[in-house]
Amino acid sequence: MTAVATAPTYLSPYDLRLSLVAAELRQSTDVPDAAATTLAEKILRALDHIPEKIR
User: Is residue 53 situated within a structural domain?
Assistant: First the structure.
């Protein structure tokens, strides 16, 4: 048996946050996967517009 090496997939910090928020939405609500990802994008966009001093 030979092992097949796969190249690691790069995920940006934004992609990691998006995945985390979408997973939480899926777990905590009955929102479908596509809707959870869309909502996660909107949530992160809103959070990114809050000034750093206030966050």
Answer: no
